[in-house]
């Protein structure tokens, strides 16, 4: 049946991406890391806030709080506006990120993905004509778009 349609290749593709742990020391690097992920040919990029318990010895040095909301929001806007051509969380993710920083509970954000449900943790199955496969990146674009 596939041959009748002129399709002779079945590709199974696992998307590959980069998660970045955002700390108070690297907020300014979010867009640059997204660009790195795109330059490396990754399929997606997800910046996530660090979560440190109130008594953690690195909380003062690395932790994020409501004091960082403006800087994070500005940097996430730069990331979305950069047009990197890779998958990013929906723009509404910036509000979830900011809510996490405002929360009294470390690492808490309502309706946020995480744990065993990661942002793009989905194996993609697609039927792709053999002539279409010129390399991983071109296949990737077809499978996840």
Number of strands: 4
Separation of termini?
25 Å
Structural class: alpha+beta
Number of helices: 5
Strand content: 15-25%
Rg over alpha carbons = 19 Å
* String of helices and strands: EEHEHHHEH
Mean pLDDT across every amino acid position = 75
How would a textbook summarize the main sheet? 2 strands, antiparallel
Low-confidence stretches: 119-145
What does this structure look like?
This protein is α+β, with helices and mostly antiparallel strands and 145 residues long. The protein has a domain at 16-115. It contains five helices and four strands. The protein has helices spanning 30-39, 59-62, 69-81, 93-102, 136-144; strands at residues 10-14, 17-22, 44-49, 123-127. Strands 1-4 form a two-stranded antiparallel sheet. It has a two-stranded parallel ribbon with strand order 2-3. Helix 1 (30-39) links the parallel strand 2 (17-22) and strand 3. The longest helix is centred in the middle third of the chain and has 13 residues, at 69-81. The chain is globular. The relative contact order is 0.23.
